[in-house]
Structure formats: structure tokens, C-alpha cells
Amino acid sequence: MTKISMTVNGKSVSAEAEGRTLLSGFLREGLGLTGTHVGCDTSQCGACVVHVNGKPVKSCTVFAHDVAGANVTTIEGMANADGSLGVVQQAFQDHHGLQCGFCTPGMVMSSAALLAENPKPTETEVREYLEGNICRCTGYHNIVKAVLAASGQSVAAE
Amino acid sequence: MPKDDGIGASTKRREDIRFLTGKGRYTADINLRDQAIAVFVRSEVAHGRINSIDTAAAAAMPGVLAIMTGADFASVGGNPAGWYVASRDGATMKEPKRPVLAHGKVRHVGDAYAVVVAETLEQAKDAAAAIEADITELPAIVNMADAVANADNRVHDEIENNVCFDWGWIEDNRAAVDAAFASAPHVTTLELVNNRLVPNAMEPRASIGDYDPGTQDYKLYTTSQNPHLTRLLIAAFVLGIPENKLTVIAPDVGGGFGSKIYHYGEEAAVLAASKALNRPVKWVAERSESFLSDAHGRDHVTKIQLALEKDGTFLALRTETMANVGAYLSNFATVTPTFLHGTLMAGPYKTPLVYVNVKAVFTNTAPVDAYRGAGRPEATFSIERVVDMAADELEIDKVEIRRKNLIGADQFPYTTPVGLVYDIGNYQATLDKLIELGDLAGFEKRASESKARGKLRGLGLSTWIEACGIAPSALVGALGARVGLFDAATVRVNATGSISVMTGAHSHGQGHETVFAQVVAERLGIPATSIDIVHGDTSKIPFGMGSYGSRSLAVAGSAMVKAVDKIIAKGKKIAAHMLEASENDIVFEDGKFSVTGTDKAKTFGEIAFSAYVPHNYPLETLEPGLEESAFYDPANFTYPAGAYACEVEVDAETGQVTVASFTCADDFGNVMNPMIVEGQVHGGVGQGIGQALLENTSYDENGQLLTASYMDYAMPRTTDVPFYTVDHSCVTACTHNPLGVKGCGEAGAIGSPPAVVNAVVDALQRGGYTHVKHIDMPVSPSRVWSAING
Question: Exposed end of chain B (fewer CB within 10 Å): N or C?
């Protein structure tokens, strides 16, 4: 066990971790940030997506030690400073882009990363970018709508 | 226009705030002080005799606190089947004991035979790997036909030919059905497989057992759709813990789709381990464990025959199905392929004669039980495929053959030949709506556009019906159910007028906290924000049968409305006293109790306050307080129905199928929150497209699960599905519940698979591949390519 330090949601944090500790485990067990979910263990479902230095990463396949010193953002860090929902979060609520909520943290983190890279994606671009995030509840319809809405594009036609 | 946040408003979901900010509280997120971690040791062979299990080395490893094996649970009860199904010859159903942990034999890959509890997950895993089990491998029984044919090789030593039951429905109809077939002008025959699916709720199962030695109380946090049933099964059948000493809490649950209705052995094991150690014991499944040990769905092999007049009029229908129940009977395994399947074989049609035969077969595979739709998708798929095939054979238009045979809007209540009474519906209306909404008239034009791009376009239809809200209890009891199927609610009006509603339904994605509050708000004329919906905790809720089978609003919602009506009735008595009027002259409207014809009134809040501060109150005749409970047992099932159209494009060179559009016209009765209802349909259709095109659960001949991760099991992803067009404007309100609701949770998963497969076959037929009559699901590129070139 060694101590790892990093910046999570703007705060400097440190906790003990084994060499085999995954970033998802470090966040959940080490820091108590249970918003990051583990849904598959094989880097397929995307429920565990967080941002590391601004890039979306499946935290169940990254060792915590490998991101020591990095700037990590989790779902807990996505709300506005006053606690209100951020743009992507609000779009997911407005367009019913979530049901059971389990895949939602990863969906929101991936969607936010998409919009940072590509502020006005097409429907196809949204679908292709989110291919690594599995949702079993929504049939993806309202997730895609929510992301398009978060980008400021009209979704009234759908 | 609906009132703000009242019935019919697309109120945004209140639960979203916690889910969107990482504040959801799923079982795996709960960490209790001093908790230990459990890891289960699972069979690597499909079938074997356990000679010995050596735990000595593992027990001596660092951090290990306890190891339990099947022997430790040999004296407690088994996890029972919830429904008794007799064979048609009167033979009793075969019910082998389903132990907490496998004992004597292991019967499927993933069958847990030991549990290790240690200080940390890593220590528990290391010790689990050090357990030495001496298991003599036996031949695996995987294929149902082999299982039935093989008298010597048995999943359970005492069960001959591995048959659980051989059920006929309705046996008295059989001779007449056979006679109709013998004289029918045309008979269409189809043999098909309804593919085995893994439900794959995104949250893997998890359980925490927490025994308190000071009070001898047990608490179980678990991923359940149905916490009261879990408590009942553990108390009455498995561990014998008194029901009053066991609390089951299903906190936020990340999807269920059926797989979390049931009680599983892991729940009993963590409770027993917690008792043994006087510490909380937590287990969280990895995804591969979910694949190996969650109850799977579907897995039918069916021969269906439809007898028709030459003009397409249906004369009779019969089916023979083998239904895989896996290695053990999961709680609803016996009702799913029978009373949730056979009773639906009339579909929305006037078919006068129907006979269904279902043989349930044990195999060395994971248990199979209800998965979104549960039996009804299997029935619908069989019917809608054979109808399309008959239309092709008789050269009748696919819309017209359906229209000709649909039950007429003037024929309700309609008694089917398979034992149901449909109370109300209008199947022509949803079909007409579909034709308009899906622009079926424009199909040929779209097909030419596809052709210009080198693609074959096909159009597939399905007209479907579902029976939801299984009930009434007396009827299902007579048919073999071992539980009641009512539901319960308590409405607690607090002194300051805010309300807590305790419901027996359980929300794991359905948005009950929002919708139920809308219903109560509308009924009481107070803001939805003053109302909280409490669910998922047996210590807070009077009773409940959980959520599945699209029953929540129709059954638990009705109980809630009944309780609210009792609140209003009591409020009128209080108001009459306060306003010095006769109770009969008090009217309740918009949150106010008024004396009719006057401006004298008391608000709901004033009445509530008076009930708790009863200074001016009729104490001689009325108890103080304002809290009412109600239990509601439905008079009948509810019967949502609809018509779906799918358009696909097929690349004949590669066999790749793309869903170009999907249109749904549904009748769910009255709709409480359109946004949520549409979301339910989207999700169901997404799962149905998954079943039709992608998902397959594949065991090899040794019973090894080849599709045990998302690397191998094709879940539908964003790029596999289109935007859907959904409509629920055709409304025939349910005649026997107070809200006139029918249920919408399973519709999409029921109606969509046949529409997709019908579309693929249609595309190939139109493309000139007229030899292709049927392709089994999942309709993968290789299957399409083989069908084209076969």
C-alpha cells in the first residue's frame, strides 16, 4: 500500500492504494465517490467513465497509480458551482435520458467529453461516440436527444 | 391540458437529481462499519458430483474470516417455485430442492458451492482460488431434445427424462382443435427458436447481510424488484428467520427486467455469514457472475401451426413448446412459459380454437425465468411470425390478414379460448394509427430509394396484446399460484399537510417517485412537491408484491388511490364537524373541503392539522390522525395492446441488417406521464431489437457459457438502433381499476421482435430470395447470409 495523490473534482486528495487498485476502486472505496459505477469489469459498458486531464477514461481499466498527480473529474464534479445541474446533466433530465440511473454517470461523462471535442455533433456522431456506453433502459432514444439538446441543437422534431 | 405535475403531465423526474449528480445509493455504494467481504466459489463444470471440498488451506490464508459450503446449508430449506403447474396427465410438477449453495452435485457452470468471507475483497478472492473441490464431472445435459430423450442422464437424479411438467392448455380444447386442423383448407406450420437472453440490468446483483446480535434483527440490503417477496421466501422457506426479525431493503436498483424479482442463494448466504461472524457481510457480483448466475430469459423451442380458410380467416391454432427451465426452478420459472404464455396464444385475434402444449425441461444451464415480457413475448413472436408466413402462403396482404382477424371494438368484453376475458380494447384503431404514423403508404417509395443504394428494404408488422397486473389472487391461486397478487399502500398525511406514501411497488428505473406523486397530487389537489413516495423497505411499507409484469400503477397504484380516497372520506368527516355541516354536504375539490352551495371551506392543510391537533374535532366518533392503508386485489388482468411496424435495410452481400425505422401505436389506457411512458416503450423496443438482431446466449456441448461477457454477448448499443416513433393516443381505459391504466413497461419488448424478423423476411422475399421463410433470432449477418445462400 502506498499513498496516491491526485486532484479530484478540483480538490487535492490522497489515499492509500495497492499497486493493483483500479482508478474506479480508488474513487469508490478510497475516496467514497460512489457516483462512478462498475458495470462490467471488461471495459465494455462505460458506466465507470471519468475524465483524466480532460479526456474520457474507463476508470475500471486504469490503475490508480498510473494517474497519480492527474486532474480527475467524476460525475460528482459536474454540477454548477451553486449545486444546480450542469448543461449535460440538465439536458438528460429535461429529455428523460435516464431511467435506472446506473449507466448515467458514465453517459454524462462521455457526452460531456464529446461536446468538448465536437460542440455541434450530428446524430450519427453522437451515436458513434457513445457506442462504448451501454444503457439497458432507454433504448438510447432520449440519451441521443439529450446530447443533441445539450449542444444547443433543436430536438423538437424527434 | 393536464394540471402542473398532475395526471397526464410530462413532469420531469425528481429521482434524476440524485442519479445525475452521483448521489444515487445502490447496494454496492453502501458500506457498513466493520463489514467483511464475501466471494462465491462457482462450479467450472456444468454437471458434476461433489466428492469433497477442502477448505483448510483457504481458511488459513490472511484475512479469511469464514468459509461456508453447501454442507452448512444442508439442513435449511430450499428456494421454492412460486407456481404449481400440473402435467396434462395429472402428474405432479417436479420440484427439486434449490439449495442456498450446491450440495452433492453442481448443476450448471456458475453454480455456487462455497462462499469465502474475508476482511477485503482481494483476500476473499485469493482464498476462493485456494479452495480445492474434488468434483467428478458428469455428462452435461444442454440441449432440451437430448435431455428429454435421455432416460439415464439426469440433472436431478430423481427426475426421469428431466421433465418438470408437460402442460396442456386448455386440455379440453384439444380434440376440437385437432378436428379443426384435420378439416382446414390451409395449414401453416413454423418451427422456431425463441433465443435465450441474459437480462443484463446494468447494475450487477449485490447483497449485504447485517445481523445485529443485540436485537437478533437481520437486515438485508439487496438488488431486488420485490423486497417483500424476498423477505417472505427467506423467512418462510429458506432460513426460517421470523419475518418480524428480518428487514429487506432494496435501495436504488439499477434495472431489473425480471432478473431481480427472485430470491437468490447469495442473499441467504450473506445473512447466514453475518450471523456467524456478528459483522455485516457484503457481496457484489462481477459481470461474469451475472452472466453465469442471474436468471436468464426466453429459451423456447416451438412448433406452431395455424389453420385458416383460403381467405385468411383463422380457424385454429396449436403449439408445442419445449421451455428450458435450467438447472433449478427459479421462483417464477414455471408460470412464465405456461400461464404467462399459453393464455396469450389467442393474441388480439378471434381465433376460435387454440391449444397449447408446453414441456418444461431441466438442463445443466443457469435457471431461466421471467425476462421483460415473460412468456408474452414468446407467445407474440410465435403468433406474429406464423401469421406473416400464412399471409405469404395465401398471398394475402399482411395488414389485411391482421385486420380481418382482429377482435372488433364492439366485441368486448371478449372471452378467449385460452381462458382470458379481455375487458376492453380497440385493435383496429391502433392498426389504423400505425398505418398513418408509419406512413405505410410511402413504403414502396422508400424501398426504391433503398434499392438505389443497393439495399433490400423490408416492412414488418406485429399486432400484439399483453396481460398485465396478474390477478385476481383467487383466480391465480386456483391456477397454481402460491402467492397473492394484490398490492398495498399507506398514505400518511403529516400534521403540516405534507404526505408520505408508502407503496408496495418498487422503482428501479420506472420513475415511480415522480409518477405516483403526480397521481396523489391530482387526487388531493395539493402540489406534488409536498408528496414523497417511499418504496423498497419492508420495515416502512405495509406489504407489497414489487414491480414486474407492468403491474405497478395498475395494482400498487390502485391501492394508493384507494388509500387516498379513504383520506378524503375521513377529511370530509373532519370538515363537516369543523364547518358545522352535514358530511353529505361536504365536497372535496382542488384541495379544499367546502360546504356545497356556500363559501365555507377548509383547506386540506387545515384538515390535516386538525387531525393531529384535535381541539375542535369529533373525537367521540372519529379517531385523530390522518393515515390510511389500502390493499387492492384487481378484478382482472389489464390488456394493453398495440400495433408495431419495423422497416429494415438488408445488405444481401454481407447479411447485415439495419433498422431503418420503428413505429409504435399503443393503447395503454390512461397515461399518467407521457414522457415516462414513451421512455418505457423506447427501452422495450431497444431490448426487442437486441433480441431480434444481436443477443444470444450460447452454451457449448459441455455446458460452458460461451457468451459470458460483453466481449461475447452482443448488447444493443447506440449505433444499433434508430430514433423510434411512438404514440399512445389510442386510449381505451381499463374498465376495472380506478385510474383506467393498463401498464406499459413490457410492451416494447413484446411487440418488437416479430416486427423486426418479419421485416427481414419481407426484405428478402421482396429481393427475390423467396426460399427464405424464416430466420431464427438473433438474425445475425451470418444467419441472413446463410439463409440467402442456403
Answer: N
Task: Say what the ipTM of the complex is.
Answer: 0.98
- By C-alpha distance, which of B305, B316, B466 is closest to B386? B305
- B539 Cβ contact list (under 8 Å, min separation 6): B247, B249
Task: Read off the C-alpha cell for B456.
Answer: 433490400
β-bridge pairing B586-589 and B353-362: unpaired
Burial label for B119, CB within 10 Å (0-12, 13-18, 19+), is middle
The CATH number assigned to the domain holding A100 equals 1.10.150.120
DSSP symbol at B86: -
| Residues A64 and A8 occupy one common structural domain | yes
Of B12, B511, B710, nearest to A134 by CB-CB distance is B710
Which residues in chain A are contacts of B31 at CB distance < 8 A?
29
B647 forms bridges with which residues in the sheet?
B459, B661
φ, ψ of residue B473 to 5 degrees: the values are -55, -40
The CATH code belonging to domain B31-138+202-255+260-293 is 3.90.1170.50
Per-residue model confidence as pLDDT tens digits over A42-91: 999 999 999 999 999 999 999 999 999 999 999 999 999 999 999 999 99
- A104 to chain B, minimum CA–CA distance in Å? 7
From CA B488, how far away is CA B505, in angstroms rounded? 8
What pLDDT score does B630 carry?
Answer: 98
Is there a domain that residue A55 lies in? yes
Q: Do A137 and B509 touch (CB under 8 A)?
A: yes
User: Are the C-beta atoms of residues B115 and B273 closer than 8 Å to each other?
Assistant: yes
pLDDT of residue B4: 78
User: Could you say which of A19, A49, A77 is where a domain stops?
Assistant: A77
- The DSSP code for B192 is E
In single-letter form, the type of residue at position B676 comes to I
Its pTM stands at 0.97
Question: Which residues constitute the domain of residue A101?
Answer: 87-150
CATH 3.30.365.10 is right for the domain spanning B300-470+636-789:
yes
- The residues pairing with B500 across neighbouring beta strands, listed in sequence order, are B492, B532
A93 vs B: CB within 8 A: yes
Ranges of residues in chain B with a pLDDT under 70 are 1
In B, minimum Cα distance to A124 occurs at B719
How are beta strands B112-118 and B64-69 bridged, if at all?
antiparallel
Q: Are B258 and B283 in contact, with CB atoms under 8 Å apart? A: no
A39 touches B at CB < 8 Å? yes
AA identity, residue B237: F
Residues of chain B neighbouring A38 (CB-CB closer than 8 A): 28
| Secondary structure element (H or E) that encloses residue B598, with its range | none
Phi, psi angle pair for B573, to nearest 5°: -65, -45
| Residue A138 contacts B where some CB pair is shorter than 8 Å | yes
pLDDT in the model for residue B578: 97
* pLDDT at position A157 over 80: no
- Output the pLDDT for position A158: 47
Domain count, chain A: 2
Q: Crossing angle of helices A104-117/A141-150, nearest 10°? A: 40
Beta carbons of B20 and A98 less than 8 Å apart:
yes
Pairing of strands B163-169, B353-362: antiparallel
Locus of grid cell 379443426? B180
- Measured between alpha carbons, how far is B742 from B125 in angstroms, rounded to an integer? 47
Confidence of residue A156 (pLDDT cuts 50, 70, 90): low
Residue B518 pairs in a beta bridge with none
ω before B407 within 30° of 0 (cis)?
A: no
Q: Is B24 in contact with A78 (Cβ distance < 8 A)? A: no
Backbone angles phi, psi at B24, to 5 degrees: -60, 155
pLDDT grade for A41, boundaries at 50, 70 and 90: confident
Return the CATH class of domain B486-632: alpha beta
- Domain layout of chain B by residue ranges: 31-138+202-255+260-293, 300-470+636-789, 486-632
Domains B300-470+636-789 and B486-632 share a fold: yes
